[in-house]
Model the fold of this input.
Amino acid sequence: MNLRVPGPTPVPPAALAAAGRQMINHRGPEFAQLLSEATAKLQACFRTRNDLLILTGSGTGAMEAAVVNLLSPGDRVLSVCIGAFGERWAEIARAFGADVRMLEFPWGEAADPDAVAAALRSDPTIKAVLVTHNETSTGVTNDLEAIAGVVRQSEALLMVDAISSAGAIELESDGWGCDVVIGASQKAWMAPPGVAMVSMSERAWRAHAAAQMPRFYWDFTAAKRQAERGMTPWTPAVSVIYALAAALSLIETEGLPQVIARHRRVGARMRGHVRALGLGLLPADDAYASDTTTAIRVPPGIEAAQLLRLLREEHGVVLAGGQGRLAGKIVRVGHLGWVQEADVDAVAEAMAAVLPRLGWGR
Ligand SMILES: *Cc1c(COP(=O)(O)O)cnc(C)c1O
Done:
């Protein structure tokens, strides 16, 4: 199978083998060693010297963890939303009683940093800004550096969902002044699902000390205290952390700049294939097209579900459909983590074979 959804992503053999290792005491020295190695390697990839917590849960769990650990009910939050994952960020904050102001952009476009600046200027009570670095539902990468630049002109916290960008797309957590940055094991990290990571700046820890939202499993005070002792507060997904550590070694060997360059090459190549097939991309401008996920417009008269089925059944190519309002309108190719040019070439070949049978180009 050529699994080309934007997570879970294929796991390389070394990481898969690591996941099959025997259990260890999660309160013993081997686990402490494993956790500390994985943490250090993740910090290097997040480009941060801040604390980084490894949590057992999916990316959404870590988003919820960030919200409940930094905010109090009634806090005003600016949600910069360019797609379904931006909506999810806002929904989580709303669910715990934040006063969420939406700054929405058309799906398929990137957020305008000037509009973020204007929103912050017009409301100095905004306590935090929620941003999606790479919007997996639309295949758009925000200019996080520019957005962070304007947020840093204010007192607001910058909370970043980097779940489909971290480890694949340039991200300078400290250099750009991000307070919270979130990732998840099953995306660019080439590990199975089940583990998420959150980096926390000094400013984020100060906000945490005053934050009143209810929490227990996700409490970062407990997570930090235990991390300092080489542990997690609750039983961690040991097998996933084995795999993650092995995959992080692969990233270290290849080199993060090389990994980012590979994603850039593969992303550009996939977009080239889409154009060569005569299809349209959802992002209007290549300048913000994502190097980890390509969103392809489904041409009129073709049923997305049928296209996905033929690709899967006849070519072993597994793509994702559209989410929310884009359901049936786009298909998405995930090209993050363990991916090479040949993988997206195979996607394009399969599409070239299947599309004419659905009436495209006849
Ligand atoms: C995948 C993804 C999520 C959700 O992560 P889960 O692990 O499925 O909970 C959130 N945000 C973005 C940008 C994603 O790509």
